[in-house]
TrEMBL record:
GO terms for cellular component: eukaryotic 43S preinitiation complex; eukaryotic 48S preinitiation complex; eukaryotic translation initiation factor 3 complex. Component of the eukaryotic translation initiation factor 3 (eIF-3) complex, which is involved in protein synthesis of a specialized repertoire of mRNAs and, together with other initiation factors, stimulates binding of mRNA and methionyl-tRNAi to the 40S ribosome. The eIF-3 complex specifically targets and initiates translation of a subset of mRNAs involved in cell proliferation. SUPFAM superfamilies: Winged helix' DNA-binding domain. Signal peptide: none annotated. Residues 826-841 have a biased composition (Gly residues). Residues 809-818 have a biased composition (Polar residues). Residues 16-29, 40-56, 74-84 have a biased composition (Acidic residues). It comes from Bombardia bombarda. Residues 607-781 form the PCI domain. The keyword ATP-binding does not apply. It is found in: Cytoplasm. Pfam families: eIF-3c_N, EIF3CL_C, PCI. This is Eukaryotic translation initiation factor 3 subunit C. Keywords: Cytoplasm, Initiation factor, Protein biosynthesis.
Length: 865
């Protein structure tokens, strides 16, 4: 490599010739040439006197080893003389001083042209720089003091000129001036003593050379574990903050600590637990109500930060601590009537002194939102319950905290009622609506006995002289009245989602307590089913839960058709878990992003709010059985048998059960219902009743015996209907007494069932009341060939109409378009029927004698077998 550092004519000539040979010759010759070049360069280096004009590279080549990188004194002096303006190495402190002076210069230039926008930006930068240049006593550099003092004077002059001779300032300068005003007011507090000294005598202040006081000694740090005697005794020890400064917790320093904590919230590498410990100590030293309120609000907010982000819930001990601190805050606000926490209050920026009540004012307004704290506390309890296994004792223990949370909600409601009494505070109605909705959310799904206990406990925590305007103390024992009062208040004073949720909560509570007709009427008159899709997901979940509860209430009342019709939308979809927010169903071909999956899990309801899905399925299948089996017997082999389907889910299960080669004893709820369906289709109503009664899930419903007796009566009636539909072609007359004996029904009940079937044109017969017999009509039945011919004609007519409409669309109504004018092809009157029991407009249902109308399936096998 030494050939690149040669000097002189000979060496340059020699190196050029060597390079030519290097490229033309072989590798060995190149190595020889390189060694020769090195020898010649060493000979030239020995003659130093003749090489006065040698370059720096020659000088570096004279030394061997590490010494060749070192410069002697003569060479270093010559380099300093030759190279002027070489950058000198500065310390970090000097660099910061230079940056500070540069920023001050920019601010001074901005003052000359009144560019308040740039001044505001540079002042913000200057305040950040001066923090790193403070001495051990926290004093700022003198150039900074001079700059901010002159800037404050210049700002005051500008404001004064604006008041005397108003001159319109552009928007950028106006915003900049306001920003400078706020930053000067906030930043000069820490250096007010220095600024006053500068204004008193600027020359002496700038020329004085103060000695830097030694840094205070840091107290000793304890490294051993404290014993029982030492616990709580921190004499001689102190908390050390950043930079080795001692944190002093005094009533005068509370606001500074709170501001530093609030500014550090949300930043990375923030020790939240350490902040909570500091605020707990501040809470102990706070001596005025204002200080205590500020510390408690900040402390509760800091605890909530522990559960923010991700799926992690707030630690239980911190949740209980936040609950206790929020209760203490409400008690303090109730005691100190002149201190109020409202959302529209102005922020107090002065950290040196606490605000006072202004003249003409009755209250000291503190910015904050009590209802937001209560909502966050409620949400954190819900998240905690979601993350705990519901089948453990830990869940039960955690659920006991709901009582204390309900007390907090109730006390918050009393506080907002007190604020609403004074119109001068301008408390928004929305805050009161939100806290009432939270109270309603905790009681609407509970039995009346549990609600009564909650109300009694929360009134015990309130002084006897305190009463509620919305829910007075005298009406606490009636849960139904409480729900009615809360919902009516929200109906009158709210709109949108809160009003809709209040109505759904009241409907749910009425259905839960067996007031079916009131719940049904409210649900129908609300028209929520028309626009529920426009609401948020949580409101849609509440609507689904309410719909299911109304269906279960109808079943408990013995209204089978209403129950099946109400539950059809939820249970017929096969997505009960997802629609009721009781679990996440993984679809086979669906692709769910992690974000969607996380949101889906956050919407899940706690286990104690779940509706038993097995009971729901049992009710739905039982109702479908009582409706579908007579319908199958009625339609038989009619062509429109597939058109009249009440429950596709039940039909699918019935077909699957019929395809089984071997059917064993029923094991689960679904098997019991399918076996009962098969027995009912065969006319064995007693066996069907036994299968239904053996389902153990009925024990979860209140009044189990009444439910079973109602089901037995329903099965008897539907068995009678199925028998008449199936075996009517075999009879000319049939005695009512015989039917009464077969199905163990009263003759009056049998007559009522037969009369209803005849009036709805479901049965082609007449009732002779004198002889108490049913007379069946003959000769009106169509043969199978006639029935199939009518079906073919209907399908051909529909096909022609479809072709005509398609042709008309393609020709766009031109004169060549073919159009029918013979009036054929409308809706046929025959065969159009509604649900079960609807009147027929055409002929009778097509059946064949002997039960051959069943086209396979459970009914055909049962009748033929």
């Amino acid at each position: 490599m030494s050939r690149f550092f040669r000097g002189g004519d000979d060496s340059s000539t020699e190196s050029s010739s060597d390079e030519e040979e290097l490229y033309s010759g072989s590798e060995d010759e190149a190595e020889k040439k390189e060694a020769k070049a090195e020898d010649s360069s060493s000979e030239e280096d020995d003659d130093e006197a003749e090489e006065d004009e040698s370059s720096d590279s020659d000088t570096g080549a004279q030394k061997k080893g590490l010494s060749r990188f070192l410069l002697d004194q003569d060479s270093s002096e010559s380099e300093e003389e030759e190279i002027e303006g070489t950058t000198k190495v500065k310390s970090a402190k000097d660099k910061r001083h230079d940056e500070l002076e540069a920023t001050i210069t920019v601010i001074q230039n901005g003052q000359k042209i009144s560019d308040w926008g740039s001044i505001a930006n540079e002042l913000d930068k200057l305040n950040r720089q001066v923090v790193k240049l403070q001495d051990a006593r926290g004093k700022a550099p003198k150039p900074y003091i001079k700059c901010v003092a002159e800037l404050e004077d210049f700002m005051n002059e500008t404001i004064a000129k604006q008041k005397v001779t108003p001159k319109k300032m552009n928007a950028t300068n106006a915003r900049g001036l306001n920003a400078v005003k706020q930053r000067i007011k906030k930043g000069n507090k820490d250096y007010q003593d220095q600024i006053d000294a500068f204004r008193k005598n600027s020359d002496d202040f700038m020329e004085s050379d103060e000695e830097v006081a030694p840094a205070p000694k840091v107290p000793k740090v304890r490294f051993h574990e404290p014993t029982a005697d030492e616990e709580g005794d921190d004499s001689g020890f102190a908390v050390v903050g950043k930079g080795g400064r001692v944190l002093e917790f005094t009533p005068e320093s509370i606001f500074k600590h709170l501001r530093s904590i609030m500014e550090s919230r949300g930043k990375k590498n923030t020790d939240r637990l350490e902040q909570i410990k500091i605020m707990e100590k501040l809470n102990k030293v706070a001596d005025t109500p204002y200080q205590k309120i500020r510390v408690l609000m900040t402390l509760v907010s800091a605890r909530f930060d522990l559960g923010s982000g991700g799926a992690a819930s707030m630690p239980v001990e911190h949740w209980k601590a936040a609950e206790g601190e929020l209760a203490a805050l409400l008690r303090l606000l109730d005691t100190e009537k002149d201190h109020v926490v409202i959302e529209n209050a102005e922020e107090w920026d002065d950290d040196e002194k606490a605000p006072t009540i202004a003249e003409g004012e009755k209250y000291l307004k503190i910015p904050g939102s009590i209802v937001s704290y209560i909502e966050r506390l409620d949400d954190e309890l819900t998240r905690s319950l979601q993350s705990i296994d519901p089948h453990t004792s830990e869940y039960i223990e955690r659920l006991t905290d709901e009582g204390s949370l309900y007390n907090i909600i109730f006390q918050g409601l009393l506080y907002y009622e007190m604020l609403r009494k004074d119109a001068s505070l301008e408390v928004p109605q929305e805050s009161l609506n939100r806290i009432i909705q939270r109270r309603l959310d905790h009681v609407y799904f509970k039995p009346a006995q549990v609600v009564k206990i909650l109300e009694e406990n929360c009134w015990k925590e309130v002084p006897s002289n305190v009463n509620s305007v919305i829910t007075p103390r005298t009406e606490q024992n009636d849960a139904s009245h409480l729900i009615n009062v809360l919902c009516n208040y929200l109906f009158e004073n709210s709109d949108g989602i809160i009003r809709a949720r209040a109505m759904l909560c009241q409907i749910y509570f009425l259905a839960l307590h067996d007031e079916y007709y009131r719940a049904r009427d409210m649900l129908l008159t609300s028209h929520l089913q028309e626009n529920i899709a426009n609401f948020d997901i949580n409101s849609q979940i509440l609507y689904n839960r309410t719909l299911v509860q109304v269906g279960l209430c109808a079943f408990r009342k013995g209204l089978v058709y209403d129950a099946q019709n109400t539950l059809q939308e939820i249970c017929g979809s096969g997505r009960q878990k997802e629609l009721l927010a009781q679990g996440v169903m993984m679809q086979r071909y669906s692709q769910v992003t992690p974000e969607q999956e996380r949101l889906e899990k956050q919407r899940q309801l706690p286990f104690h709010m779940h509706i038993n899905l097995e009971l729901l399925e049992c009710v739905y299948l039982t109702c479908s059985m009582l409706l579908e089996i007579p319908l199958l017997a009625q339609t038989g082999s009619s062509p429109d048998v597939k058109k009249r389907v009440i429950s596709k889910t039940y039909r699918r299960m019935l077909e699957y059960h019929e395809r089984q080669i071997f059917t064993g004893p029923p094991e689960n709820t679904r098997d019991h219902v399918m076996q009962a369906s098969k027995a009912l289709a065969a006319g064995e109503w007693k066996k069907a009743t036994e299968f239904i009664h053996n389902i153990k899930i009925w024990e979860l419903m209140p009044n189990t015996d009444n439910i079973k007796s109602l089901l037995a009566k329903q099965i008897q009636e539907e068995g009678l209907r199925t028998y008449l539909f199936t075996y009517a072609p075999f009879y000319d007359t049939l005695s009512i007494a015989t039917l009464s004996t077969m199905f163990e029904l009263d003759t009056r009940k049998v007559s009522a069932v037969v009369s209803k079937m005849i009036s709805h044109e479901e049965l082609a017969a007449a009732l002779d009341q004198v002889t108490e017999t049913v007379i069946f009509r003959k000769g009106v039945e169509l043969s199978r060939l006639q029935s199939l011919s009518l079906t073919l004609a209907d399908k051909a007519s529909a096909l022609i109409e479809t072709n005509e409409r398609t042709l008309e669309q393609r020709t766009q109504g031109s004169t060549n378009a073919f159009s029918r004018k013979d009036g054929r092809g409308g809706q046929r009157g025959g065969g159009q029927r509604g649900g079960r029991g609807g009147a027929r407009t055409g002929g009778n249902t097509q059946r064949q004698a002997g039960g051959t109308q069943f086209t396979g399936g459970a009914l055909g096998a049962a009748v033929r077998g």
